[in-house]
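Recall that a protein's primary structure is simply its ordered list of amino acids. Everything else, from secondary elements to tertiary packing, is in principle encoded there. The following example makes that idea concrete.
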Amino acid sequence: MCNLYRMTKNASEVAAWFGTVEGTGGANFAGEVYPGYTGLVVAEGAVRAMTWGFPLVLKGAKGQPLKPKPVNNARTDKLGTGFWRHAFERRRCLIPLEAWAEAEGPKGRMTRTWLSLPDAALFAAAGVWRPSDEWGDCYSMVMTDSAGSDAAAVHERMPVLLAPADHAPWLEGSPEEAFGLCRGWAGPLAITRTSEPWAKSAAPSPAPQQPGLF
């Protein structure tokens, strides 16, 4: 599942790339996006800043409210469940990214492996979004089985990647049409294995709670 991706383009560049309008807002963005932090999405015809992850409200052993957990990945086989259904049916979005990362290696010494589309400066992953009381508008990345894709060499799941011709059907099509796009990427992927530690000291601080996948 994806808990980190790279996106260094600004809102104007994203708007030009996707042929949409630039949204408003003065949010600051890091080049690496982590669950619980702000990223850009294309939704409702505009580039918008949202928090990565739907808030999962938790309670402690004595019923006391705890800090919500950002559920940043939505499994395709769960899109029809109550947690995701309304967003999938009514609020789909595009998530612009340059690459996403997965952790590889032994526990405690995992390193970052980056996956991207060859020669693509920017591409889109499928997303869903909704408003929330906790963080305002928020989004989650749709994940599917990576079997049959180059990504299977790294992880059993991968983001649903959308070719340009699939952008409009994902955003505006029926739930049935959109679900038909939820498959592993059949084209080539660039896989870059690095010696970078998965948990870098340069990661945002304080770190969000452990992200999740539903």
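The longest helix spans residues 164-172. The domain at 5-213 is CATH 3.90.1680.10 (hypothetical protein yedk fold).
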